[in-house]
Structures are given as structure tokens and as C-alpha cells.
Amino acid sequence: MLLDGKKLLITGVLDPRSIAFAVADTALSQGAEVVLTGFGRTRRLTERSAGRLSGDVEVLELDATSDEDVAAVAQDLQSRWGRLDGLLHAIGFAPASCLGGGFLDAPWEDVATALRVSTYSYAALGRGFADLLAAADGASVVGLDFDAQVAWPGYDWMGVAKAGLESANRYLARELGPRGVRVNLVAAGPLNTMAARSIDGFGEFETVWKERAPLGWDLGDPKPVARTVCALLSDWTPGITGEIVHVDGGVHAMGAGVPSA
User: Which of 124, 144, 127 is nearest to 10 (CA)?
Assistant: First the structure.
């Protein structure tokens, strides 16, 4: 039981196809106790998905852009557990103008929203839960990423937000490391999630991964990503922080297509 006795807070569960759902499901199977978060109208989706997980999993209200919400959840977890062994940041949003090929036309107000929700919230959660994480023995923060080393078609300002997330990951690791907290990102290959389907041109990613993934890639299977997240949340990676772990079938390392088997 890789996560036996661990107390985990998991954000971003929208439906059973989401990566965060797969992480929660895997964590529960490995002995963790899990609390989910939801926000506004989408909280009902999270609660519905929670009902499909094993065990009684509670959903707390958390708008990651609200310091008051973060403080309220931290207070709840302090009373409930007194510590936090792990946190999954699976939060991202960009207005429609920031995606789909209109990079130069997106207004600053929309770009600011994308950066605040998708990038700054990572640091905000790290700050808000720092004391609870430090109270655990070797706590871990994990965020979900999409490789920001290159420009992707249609990804536009979300790609910029992810590049910022990768930088924030290094700084957050620097800040929380002295308190015994590890901070890492998992850069996942494309998956058929609700968020991915909202991106115009998402189908192009499938072609890229078919041509360039030496291990192959299944857009409908989030389990490889979920297992890697759970490994980083466990005690088996004590010396890893500030890292970006690619779980993408190897595409990030390839300069061109791979030969057929």
C-alpha cells in the first residue's frame, strides 16, 4: 500500500475521465484518505464523480483564486487531520479568447485570468497549506503540466501559463524545501479530458503522439499519469523536488517520428 495512512487533498476532479479522478481512485486503492475540492457550479460534477470512488469521499468548496476559501479549507483540514501529506494541483482555466489560435488577439484581462487561475494558484495553494504540509513527515505537492518547452497549435496563452507554472514549480520547491516539503510537476501527454476537449485543434495532438511516442500513447488511459503522481506523493521519492516528470510515452525526448516495431 504505497500511500497507506496518507492524508491527501486533490483538486480538479470534474468527471471520471479527468486525471485528478484517476489520481484519487489510485490513491484510495493504495490506502490514502482523500478529500476533494470543487468550486461553484462545477462542484456538483465533483460530488457526482466522488460518488463513483471507493469509500466516502468528501468535497470541500475551494476557489483557488480566493484566499478566504484556501484559509477555510486549511482550517477544516487542520481540525480533521492536523497535517496534510500531499496536495494535487489540477487546476487550469483560460477564457476562450486565449485558446484556439487567437494568440495575438487575446485581451490582457483574459490573459490575466488564465495566468491567475492556471499559474499563480499553484503558489497560492502552496502558501495556504504550507503549515499543514510542514506538519507532515515528508509531504509532497504535485501539479499537472503539459510540456511548455515548445509552442503547441491552439494552446496559445495556456501554453504561456504552463511555462509560468514550470517556473513557479522551481520557486515553490525552493521556498518549501527547507520545511521538508517536496514540489514537483507531472507533464502528461494529451488525454481525452473535459479540459482537453475544449481546446480547438486538440485532435492534432493525437497525430503527433501516434507518430512520435516510442512507447505509444493511449489518449483514453490516464492511469500511467495517475500512478506517477501517486509515486511522487508517496515516501518513495524523498530526494526529488523542483522536477518535471514527463509521462507522455517519450514524445518530449524525440526530435522526429520513431520507426515502426
Answer: 144
Predicted structure pTM score: 0.96
For the domain that residue 135 is a member of, what is the CATH number?
A: 3.40.50.720
Spot the catalytic one: 6, 7, 122, 155. 155
- Domain assignment of residue 57, yes or no: yes
CB atoms inside a 10 Å sphere around CB 113: 19
Q: Distance (Å, rounded) from C-alpha 142 to C-alpha 157?
A: 22
Structurally, the chain folds into a number of domains equal to 1
Active site residue 223: no
String of b and e for 119-153 (b: at least 16 CB within 10 Å)? bbbbbbbbebbbebbebbeebbbbbbbbbbeeebe
Q: How far apart are the first and last CA of the chain?
A: 35
Interatomic CA distance for residues 36 and 59, integer angstroms:
5
Domain that holds residue 206: 7-247
Residue 259 belongs to a domain: no
Active-site residue, from 6, 162, 210, 223: 162
- Residue-wise pLDDT for 22-54, tens only, equals 999 999 999 999 999 999 999 999 999 999 998
Active site residue 120: no
- Taking only the tens place, the pLDDT of each residue in 72-96 is 999 999 999 999 999 999 999 999 9
